[in-house]
Each structure stands twice: as C-alpha cells, then as structure tokens.
Amino acid sequence: MSSQFGAAPIKLSEYPRRPEIGRIGRQIRVKANFFEVLRLPDANVYHYDADISPTVPSSLNRRIFEHFVKSESGGILGGIKPVYDGIYLFSIEYSLFILIDKILIKGRKNLYTIKQFPFGDAITHQITLPENLAASNSKKPPRTFTIKLKKVAEKNLEEAIRFVQGKCATSSNIMSAIGALDVLINQEPSMKFTTVGRRAFYTPENSSTLSGGAEVWQGYWQSLRPGQGKFFINFDTSATAFYEAGNVATLIAKILGCKLEELRTGFTLNQRLKVEKTLKHLKFRVTHRGVNFQRRFKIKKLSENSTQETHFSKGMILK
C-alpha cells in the first residue's frame, strides 16, 4: 500500500524538566545506594572495530585477544600495559579502553580507547596461541589467528558531562559514552571476582553450603547512572548459587547424597541421568599434564560405561 504523505522525520524530544524542589515540611536526610563519581577521564574516546579469524567460540575468542594484547603491549600497541575486565558473556562485542597506559577488554568486536593506537587507522596481525590456551574440543584447533583492528570513529566525553548538567539533550553519542563509562567502572571488580552477566560480581569467601553440591556466594551488583549534575554508581548486594569447586567424584557423591566409596559400585540408570543433568555444560580442567597444560573442557554427557569398560584405538575420536 502506497502512502499519500511523505515520510516525516522523527524528532527526539528532550526529557521533561523536574519541578522545583519542595519547600513545605521538614527536611530529612535519606541514605540511598548511590555513590557519586568524583572524576571522569578528560579525553576523547576512539572507537575501533576488531575482527578475529577464523571464527571461534566467544570464550576462545577472548583468550586469543588477551594473548595478543599481552604479547604485543610492548610492540604494535605502543608499550601499553594491559588490564582486563574478564567479562566475555555479556554480548557479541569486544570493548577496549585505554586509560593512560592501561587496556580494558570486554566482549567481542568493538574497541574503545582514550589514547589513539600508534599504528594509525588500521592494522592486521597474526598471532599463534599456546597449546594450554587453545580450544578444548575433540578436533585439533587452529593455532594461528588473524586479528584486524580498524579505527571507526572518535567520540567526546564532554557531551555526556554536559548532559547530566542539563546543558544539552540526549543523543546517540551520549548514550555510547554512558555505556562506555559503565564498562569502565566494572573493570576492577571483574578482574578480582567471578562475574555473572554484565554487572554482578561474586566471591566464594564466606559462602554457605547448600544440598546437592551447591553453595551460595555473596556478591554485589553495580551500574553507572546519570543523575542531577553528576554521574552515580548504583550499588546493591546480591547472592547466587554455584556448584562447589573441587574433585568431580566428590561433587558427584554430594549430588547423589552418598559416600564417595559407594561410587565404586557404579551408577543406576536414574543416578546416571541425575548426575548427567546436573553436570551438563559445567566446565572442568584436566590435571594429569601438569600445571602448564590444564586445558578446560565442557561436559556434554556421561558415558554409560566405566573407564574399565571403555576402549578405543589410537587416533579414534570417542563420541
């Protein structure tokens, strides 16, 4: 169906101004879980696009880039010391910040810096991943990867500061700057704690034991929020459940509610299905090759046979 009218441009309206402060009644002081941001980076933000080929899972993709930053911090990256936020499950993008001489990595594709890279607008670099950082699937993973970095745009943080001061309306540049600052405040805790989602951080210290091999970890949640005249960090406590770390056999005994010695007799069908359902998608690492080659794997299923009953030839892939 054709329209008789031309397409009208979309105009974003400004946020309505708040009314004057109330003057009736008695003033009281209220404590809130918001903390003022005292200082922001006084610099432009440079936006880069990053591409790693061949395509690999996001977890391996992040390890490749971390190894690239570590090995090239004194080379093509201009002597910049890397600092990582450790978050790679939030989105399909990489976000990189450089603060003075520090790098903050997040996600998978987009890079942001407040200091322009010394190599110019674009660079292509090949990197070889050490064996202990490689993928943990049954097929031999590719060892050499190509990393491409390309400058996309330059953004100004001053506009975001003017926005919270009420001196300008919102814009895409302001929203991008706020998102960048939100990643920035999560950099330090993501290096120290276990991250869940985008802004939640947990520690096993003072954890509480649950049944079935699970335990509760205490943590907190934080997010950057624009406020009246300044930015604030919204902070709140949180708790979530994790499976206990340690020997897999010990964890299985806790899942089944039995003694470790009782596992020697094998599983019933119901027990095997219960354990398989619980352990599926959990990650573990092997220790028989020493501390330098403790590759991590993800559990897909449990074998119906014991190790004594399982046989395969050299070179055969066991499915």
Automatic annotation (TrEMBL):
Report the InterPro entries cross-referenced here.
Answer: ArgoL1, Argonaute_N, PAZ_dom_sf
Offer one Pfam family short name for this entry: ArgoL1
Superkingdom of origin: Eukaryota
Q: Which residues form the Argonaute linker domain?
A: 194-245
Which protein is depicted?
Answer: 6986_t:CDS:1
